[in-house]
Amino acid sequence: MKSSDVILQTATKVVFFLIFLFAIHIFFAGHYTPGGGFVGGLLTASAIVLLLLAFDLKTVSRALPFNYTIMIAIGLLLALGTASASILFDVPFFTHAYDYFDLPLFGETSLHSAMLFDLGVYLVVVGATMNIILTIGSDD
Amino acid sequence: MMIFFWISLIVIVISMALFVYRLIKGPTAPDRVIALDAMGVTLISVVALLSLLVGTSFYLEIILLLAILSFIGTVAFSKFIEKGEIFDRGDSD
Q: Which residue windows are transmembrane per the record (chain A) (predicted)?
């Protein structure tokens, strides 16, 4: 079948980056306001699903050459490592450290080690969701 | 001004109930898809009116999130109705 979805493909090239930017915003806003790694991961997965809808599986896997199973493993290792690193400093499990730094462009910023745990959650959610969707969607 | 927001909220919720009727009754599949998309739009307006009534700006991100999810859902349903499959495998052409 000849594909004639020019409007969808052209719109997707712009909307994909808008959704991805919003996912990054939600991910970083998650410390004080609604959001976090889970919602950010789901939004990133939906952006990739939009790419899959507009183009095809081969094009998307060439543009984003990720192995989503390994992504789950990296995310779980990151989350577990951040959680258990607190044992080395003789504080209870899952205790997170934070401090205020003077960054050049942002001014005084508070950096938390809980963000690394959230990054692990983000990678696990993206990997698991894309694994499920590709497994369901690619067999005939 | 508050009474105006309450009246519009009630009207939008009534229209949402009518969309649920169309979603269940709808004779063909495109009717149901359009009813679902319009329900997304009315849900967005309900959230916007609630954020005006409560007086907070934390709900505004939910509006963007609902708009993105409703858009992707409608595109997926349309492609399924039009082509019969969601994802092309990319080896046909």
A: 12-32, 38-57, 69-94, 114-134
What sign has the CA pseudo-torsion A25, A26, A29, A31?
negative
Give pTM, 2 decimals: 0.85
Instruction: Count other C-beta atoms under 10 Å from residue B88's C-beta.
Output: 22
Which candidate in B87, B89, B91, B92 is best for mutational testing of the A interface (most A CBs within 10 A)?
Answer: B87
* Residue B68 with chain A: CB contacts under 8 Å: 19, 22, 43, 46
What is the domain count for chain A? 1
Range(s) of the domain holding residue A114:
6-137
- How much is the ipTM here? 0.81
Q: Is residue A1 part of a domain?
A: no
**Which tokens go with A127?**
């990997």
Say if residues A103 and A109 touch (Cβ distance below 8 Å). yes
- A50 and chain B in contact, CB less than 8 A: yes
Instruction: Kindly list the domain boundaries of chain B, sorted by start residue.
Output: 27-82
Question: Would you call A35 an interface residue with chain B, using a CB distance cutoff of 8 Å?
Answer: yes
> Along the 140 residues of chain A, how does pLDDT read in single tens digits?
556 688 889 999 999 999 999 999 999 888 778 888 899 999 999 999 999 888 888 888 888 888 999 999 999 999 999 888 888 888 888 888 888 888 888 778 778 888 888 999 999 999 999 999 888 877 65
